[in-house]
Write a structure and sequence with these properties.
alpha+beta, 7-stranded antiparallel beta sheet, 13 helices, 14 strands, 39% helix, 21% strand
Length: 367
Amino acid sequence: KHMNRILELDEETFTLNVEPGALVGDIHQHVEALGYFYPPDPASKHSTIGGNVATNAGGIRAVKYGVTRDYIRELTVVLPSGEEMTLGSLNIKSSSGYDLLDLFIGSEGTLGITTQIKLRLLPLPEATKTVLISFEDVFKATEGTLAILSSGADPSEIELFEKDAVNYAEKHLGYPLQSQTGDAYLLVALDGNDELELTARMATILEVVEPLSLEIIPLTDADEARKARLIRDNILIGLMEFTQYEMLDEVVPINKFAELIHYTKGLQEKHELSVLNFGHSGDGNVHTILMRGDLTDEEWTKRRKALLDDLYRKVKELGGLPSAEHGIGTVKKPYLEKMTDEVNIKYMREIKKIFDPENRLNPGKLF
């Protein structure tokens, strides 16, 4: 909690040295004020960078820029033995032994305690363009996603959310989304350094989605774009404030995204649970939300488990995984074990024993 400092910016290596308790939102503000860019952008700006490393967090810009793993140059970690290790280095390339850095990223605190992180930065893009597109339903929105990805326009964000999910964010923030048409939306952003090129790329996007969409609203004002993005980022907070739910973060290959969305809606009817979706449609990561409604504890537990069993079975069939960016923790353990080859789980456990033979760090997590 107290190791929350942003320590040093090395402008010669484009590296920012931070402590694990530093907040992602504070890191963004700090580097952007200096003309730099840290691309990973999870919805929770109050999440810590150490937590992001522990789960290999993604966020809304993963479709173009990748995830946390792609921006970690070096970690300092302390092992249960008390030994300190430096993982990675400031070198851009390495073929020097096992990649222990990648082993620790996403390990959910089960192998060591992170005490310092050196982040890779990029130059801040000079221009951005954002558009909000409404669709008749979530199925048309997923068609729109695939059309955009196939267009070659190279978006930095393609965020999908259903109107029923947006309602919770609107109530929480106190203002409406700019479009009230249709039942699903895509928030699409482009960035770059050439205004004319961005204009041409945006024109390509609008051309391919126009036949599928109900309304297209260019968010030319920076404040309007910020407000739309806040709606997207506050869906979860709105849900927390007004209802009970379970949110998932399953991921499938991008060509299976539409099929998964269709399947979740079928589960809604089968298990008599309201199901909403939002998430990072550009990289196949769906945040499926199961709404409890007025169910008793017994009914909620029963229906939730039955739906999850069906959903994760389908995710496996589609070549997907139970977690894209939130981690496994304890809730998804049984599904990780079902969806992962036994030999893989075996050697994950062996690795855990090597670093933490007495099982002191986050016992019971992952597997």
